[in-house]
Specification:
Number of helices: 11
Helix content: 55-70%
CATH superfamily: MetI-like
Shape: elongated
Protein name: Glutathione transport system permease protein GsiD
Keywords: Cell membrane, Membrane, Transmembrane, Transmembrane helix, Transport
Main location: membrane
Pfam family, one: OppC_N
CATH class: Mainly Alpha
Radius of gyration: 25 Å
Organism: Pseudonocardia autotrophica (Amycolata autotrophica)
Length: 313
């Protein structure tokens, strides 16, 4: 008779230990990554910051009752005080209120630009990687052309050329900025997805699906996409912060968003003439921008480590 106090190397199938091992082994990549992410301090810190920023963008009226567009020239460039925690800008507008309300525009631009880049780039990469041949070469060369254009130079050219066509519409200018970021950034996503698709199309599960008569669309959606999306999602989390910084850069250069739009980039652009006399005009929106970009970069690092089996302990 086997002593129940002695641990066996091979647990019987019906034991709780074996059942737990079976559940652990059967977890999908996404579930396994989520299990790992919840135990990473980096992920917790990043998601806490991002959650706070999302709340700011959705409900700015909970944090300030001041209209960010109303100014009093008698208070122009006054420093921080009990009445205005972040001081006033060059038109006497409350910098704290503008920083809070600017969260919405900056994050919305980043999210929409990231969505555009991921959707377009991923589709192109999947098609190129799955089909191969001359179509793969053609799409790869097109991506190389866009990839070779310097981002800032390309954005200046595109925005300067098409800005007159959208007029002074806030929605039109915002859409133009988002489209410009997407136009110049999709090749990176395309390359990542193409590499993953080329590796996936040679796997046994894809060959088995073809042998069973599955069509190209079913193979791509049901078999390849779930196994190739992870590296794209890792890039998307990092790119979102980068695109928020890109919007601020373009606004600072005078080709992106402009007043009356309230965004961190617009505030930084307006502060550039008063850096010596009124540094608070740059300090607070710049600080929020840095924290936001850092939060998304930290989130991207945590997601990358979670989806990388070699990086797990």
């Amino acid at each position: 008779m086997t002593d129940p106090t002695v641990a066996s190397a091979d647990k019987p199938v019906g034991t709780p230990e074996a059942a737990g091992a079976t559940v652990t082994r059967s977890r999908s990549l996404g579930a396994d990554a989520w299990y790992d992410l919840r135990r990473r301090p980096l992920f917790i810190v990043a998601t806490t910051l991002i959650t706070a920023l999302i709340v700011l963008s959705l409900f700015p009226q909970l944090f300030t009752s001041v209209d960010p567009t109303v100014g009093d020239l008698s208070r122009a460039r006054q420093g921080p005080s009990t009445e205005a925690w972040f001081g006033y800008d060059n038109l006497g507008r409350d910098v704290y209120a503008r920083t809070i309300y600017g969260t919405r525009v900056s994050i919305v631009v980043g999210i929409l630009a990231t969505t555009l880049v991921v959707l377009f780039g991923a589709v192109m990469g999947l098609i190129a990687g799955f089909v191969g041949g001359w179509l793969d070469s053609l799409l790869a060369r097109i991506a190389d052309v866009f990839f070779g254009v310097p981002f800032v130079l390309g954005a200046i050219v595109v925005l300067s050329t098409f800005r007159q066509s959208v007029g002074q519409s806030v929605v039109g200018i915002s859409g133009l900025v988002i489209g410009t970021i997407g136009l110049l950034s999709w090749p990176i996503t395309m390359r990542i997805m193409r590499s993953a698709a080329i590796a996936a199309r040679n796997q046994d599960y894809v060959k088995a699906a073809r042998a069973l008569g599955a069509g190209p669309w079913r193979i791509i959606v049901r078999h390849m996409l779930p196994n190739t999306i992870a590296p794209v999602m890792v890039y998307a989390t990092i790119a979102l912060g980068a695109f928020i910084g890109a919007e601020a850069t373009l606004s600072f250069l005078g080709v992106g968003l402009r007043d009356p739009v309230v965004s961190w980039g617009v505030m930084i652009s307006e502060a550039q003439s008063y850096l010596r006399t009124s540094p608070h005009l740059l300090l607070f929106p710049g600080g929020f921008l840095v924290v936001t970009v850092l939060a998304f970069v930290l989130l991207g690092d945590a997601v990358r480590d979670a989806f990388d089996p070699k990086g797990r302990s």
